[in-house]
């Protein structure tokens, strides 16, 4: 797999979008829903020109079932969710970013463990004030 920097990936997605090759989900400002941008453009800009936050025009539906999700690794789950929101990234680019973010830098293979409190499960936080 080629080495990618995050900025390269995002700029490449913007270039591909401008050539009309890819696109699905668009993002709009919380202050003005008329101007839309791609996910990669929203990442590069950070904030909309009017100072609003970028939000997706619609919330995409996952194309996997909960039963399928529970059998997936953290990285596979991240890909199943993120590919619905970052539609202007290729599968290779998105998986590379996910695998680079969630690799051996964690001290456990369980990146987001669940903790049972009473009859309820909660995602344990790696951040606490103590």
Overview of this protein structure:
This protein has 130 residues and is α+β, with helices and mostly antiparallel strands. Helices cover 37% and strands 12% of the residues. It is built from 5 helices and 5 strands; from the N terminus they run αββαβαααββ. The strands form 2 sheets. Strands 2-1-3 form a 3-stranded antiparallel beta sheet. The protein has a two-stranded antiparallel ribbon with strand order 4-5. A hairpin with a 6-residue loop joins β1 and β2. α1 (6-18) crosses α2 and α4 crosses α5. It is globular and about 45 Å long. It starts with 5 loop residues before the first helix and ends in a 7-residue tail after the last strand. The mean pLDDT is 81.
Summarize the structure.
By secondary structure, this protein is α+β, with helices and mostly antiparallel strands. The chain has helices at 6-18, 39-45, 66-70, 74-85, 91-101; strands at residues 27-29, 36-37, 54-56, 114-117, 120-123. Strands 2-1-3 form a 3-stranded antiparallel β-sheet. A two-stranded antiparallel ribbon has the order 4-5.
